[in-house]
Amino acid sequence: MTAGLLVLEDGTAHRGRAIGAPGTFFGEIVFNTSMTGFQEVLTDPSYRGQLVVMTSAHVGNYGGRRDEAESGCVQAAGFLARDFPEFWSGTGGEFGLAALLAESGVPGLYDFDTRSLVRHLRTRGVMRAGVSTEIRSARELRRLVRESPVMEGSRLALDAGTRETWRSPAAGNAARWRVAAIDYGMKSNLVRLMNSRACDVAVFPAAAGAREILESEPDGIFLSNGPGDPAGLPSCVEVIRELLGVRPIFGVCLGHQLLGRALGAPTFKLKFGHRGGNHPVQDSADGRVAITSQNHGFAVDPKGLPAGAAVSHVNLNDGTLEGFRDRERRVLAVQFHPEGAPGPHDSWPLFDEFLGMMGSAP
């Protein structure tokens, strides 16, 4: 087995065994609490630039499938867990975790104390880190880590999604709605769920302008998830300002953060973020609690929301903002991932609420 070294920017070091691609890799190190869904996690564009530690002890004991990917490639900068089983099983599997990492040029590290690592990140907060099969000196690797890019101010979303506009037709070609989706690093299941609800979806690059988007004559506008810092995307925020009130808008994850900034609310970096499929969120309207799938390191400060924009969802773990509605401007925004993949389906009704907004639009 190949030896591997993990070093955090504060000097914390772990040695383990490596799979996947050899070499030296850097990224912000974060943790995910999902029990399943390794392929969906790895292919989620919101993980671009991040080394992902799974809190589940055994990861990869079942096989992946090409049609279950959330994008066209592995997006994470590296993948870490307590144990990556050598063999996988399960009906329908087409490949194992090691093969997926190797063909994607992404490293994996296991057989070390991930529990102590996650506790350290919860205490100190997420930070930059490096994984290497080449460098043996923790001091040398730490030096390189401290020269690597930081997440604050990053503009990863501009390159995480499509470069050209493309269309995904409604299921059975039974289109009732036209949706313009801005792709900041959009997961595939978001499009699938809108297609299944009679929506033709035109997917635009993150840098698309308001005029180009409106020329597609959409009934509604969807703002996707994506990686990086929303504060590093002022041009995207300006486009959203031009779209506010023109068509109903539904934003999720990064789309939620950009909508908040477009309305004047600041965003801030969380200590260790929310990542996993078991985060409880309460609906402020009726008190119901949904278990949600999440993947974000930044949040919107609700104190900056303008009059008319009301808090709709709150995280029950730390009280942070998880969603807001603005009836006058026809805005629906949630911080979590209503499509799951991986994760529960508690929040699927939000897509139907978006349809209702489009149906009631003048």
Mean pLDDT across all residues, rounded?
Answer: 96
Measured as a percent range, the helix fraction is 10-25%
Uncertain spans: none
User: In percent terms, what proportion of residues is strand?
Assistant: 25-35%
CATH topology group of the largest domain: Rossmann fold
Quick one: CATH superfamily of the largest domain?
Class I glutamine amidotransferase (GATase) domain
> In the residues, how many domains can be counted?
2
Taking the alpha carbons of the first and last residues, their distance comes to: 63 Å
Indicate the CATH class of the largest domain: Alpha Beta
User: How would the global form be characterised?
Assistant: globular
Radius of gyration using CA atoms only: 20 Å
- The total beta strand count reads 17
Structural class, by secondary structure, is: alpha/beta
Biggest β-sheet description = 10 strands, mixed
Query: Would you list the SSEs in sequence order as H and E?
Result: EEEHEEHEHEHHEEHEHEHEHEEEEEH
Biggest sheet strand order reads 8-10-9-11-12-17-16-15-13-14
Please work out how many helical segments DSSP would assign.
10
Which architecture name of the largest domain does CATH use? 3-Layer(aba) Sandwich
Overview of the structural elements:
- By secondary structure, this protein is of the alpha/beta class.
- It folds into two domains: 144 residues, Glucose Oxidase, domain 1 (3-Layer(bba) Sandwich), CATH 3.50.30.20; 203 residues, Rossmann fold, CATH 3.40.50.880.
- The chain contains ten helices and 17 strands.
- The strands form two sheets. A ten-stranded mixed β-sheet has the order 8-10-9-11-12-17-16-15-13-14, with helices on both faces. A seven-stranded mixed β-barrel has the order 1-2-6-5-4-3-7.
- Strand 13 and strand 14 form a beta hairpin.
- Helix 8 packs across helix 9.
- It is globular.
